[in-house]
Amino acid sequence: MVKGAEVAARRYARALLDVATEKGDDGLREELGELAAVLAGSPELRTVLVHPGIPAEKKIAVLGALWGKDRPSPLLERLVALLVEKRRIELLPLIARAYTRLWNAARGIVEAEAVSAFPMEPAASHALSAAVGSVIGKQVELREQVDPSLVGGLLLRMEGRVYDGSVRARLRALRERLAGTGSA
Q1: What pLDDT, in 10s, does the model give residues 68-92?
Q2: Non-local CB neighbours of 136 within 8 Å, separated by 6+ positions
């Protein structure tokens, strides 16, 4: 998305975090992430919510029907209503991401992404998170991703760095050493 959208999303996220902290709403981060995932997974819903010809009241009613009895926190409902009315609902995934970063930073939590060739077992994921946390001296929130092209091993992205312990990286390094040896 455009850089301006990211700036606007950070502003919404900062204000949201301030209000959530004041109100003691610790579940907002999870609710926001779940709603962003629903929007990402439903192109039809996104189309309805961004369509300029559909009135804001109907869009809010669609979301109300989607939530049903499992209504989100009043703070999230107000945010969504505001975004719909201002025609900024497409910012929601960016707001969710920015909110999570701000929430984690306020609590000293480091975000990391583990990429593996196969889905990790929950115990392995927990052990990795604990091991990385003990090395850096902070709590680690680990997101997992699967990339079969790694062949095996693990790729860890954290704090702007990439730690590549994948089989693919080892094979590439071996190929480079062999290519360098053969030409000498």
Answers
A1: 888 888 999 999 999 999 999 999 9
A2: 110, 158
